[in-house]
Write a sequence for this structure.
């Protein structure tokens, strides 16, 4: 699935557009930054409730082109600015992490 397709599927608010036509290889969910740094695979999307600047740094480090902020989390301006600079799509959705994972799995996206 592409980033655009995932954003359309989940709804929510796109806070930063990034590279909408990029294919997503899989998904990882987690809020512990060190876990994501040690586990996430390149090209995966990341589902989290963490909404601070360090999230973008981890996404850049692991080449994660889509960050989904679950449970209606709002991103501060510095996170949005960094995601814009790094061309990372940032999506805020009202669904819980569990609900996002379930929806993505239902549509064939593999998790980690």
């Amino acid at each position: 699935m592409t980033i655009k397709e995932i954003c359309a599927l989940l709804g929510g608010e796109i806070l930063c557009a990034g590279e909408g036509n990029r294919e997503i290889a899989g998904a990882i969910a987690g809020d512990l930054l060190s876990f994501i740094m040690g586990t996430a695979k390149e090209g995966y999307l990341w589902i989290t409730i963490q909404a601070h600047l360090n999230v973008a740094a981890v996404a850049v480090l692991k080449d994660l082109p889509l960050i989904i902020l679950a449970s209606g989390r709002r991103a501060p301006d510095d996170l949005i600015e960094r995601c814009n600079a790094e061309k990372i799509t940032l999506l805020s959705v009202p669904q819980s992490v569990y609900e996002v994972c379930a929806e993505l799995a239902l549509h064939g996206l593999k998790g980690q």
